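Narrative of activities, Objective 1.

The group set out to show that a structural description can be obtained from nothing but a protein's sequence at a throughput compatible with the screening campaign. Below is one input-output pair from the validation batch, recorded exactly as produced.
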Amino acid sequence: MTISKKKKLERHTFRKLRDEISLNQRENVEKNVKLYVDSFIKEYKNIGYIAIYWPLRNEVDIRSLKEKFSLALPRCKDKNELLFYPWDEEPLTKDSEGILSPNNSFSLSYNQISMILVPCLSVDKNLTRLGYGGGYFDKLRRDNDWRNVPCIGVLTSNCVSTIPLTRADWDIPLSGFITEKEIFV
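Output recorded for this entry:
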């Protein structure tokens, strides 16, 4: 079986598992994300933007971080390019994938972002992330400067794979992940 077909099966399995999670589980993941970000800030003091995502399809909603921190949201451009923009008070518009995102005139560079929080369908203990298959985060993190920005997966514990996920050559492992049960960073 090809890598593509294996990943398609894994996506189907973990999408079903994610759809079974309760609001309480998602809220508890959000609490752990806040705990981790708070501890990160205490350690590093002077931080830049925290890059998050606009939640889709039962993903954990961490937009409440905006109450306390400067956030950036991704915007997908043509040719599978992912850029981050400050999330300010301007209205959000849909990007090339139909996801709400800022459409500011300037994107942020890797040295303006202190951490990237990324949604996962699944992750394994080798920190291999299973996403939707667009490759946006992996393409961004091919660049060593972006790869040095901590990239933390956000998901519920029932979607952490107990066996290694299928990994392609272009898959770049995460720096860690956060669930309602653990902060594995």
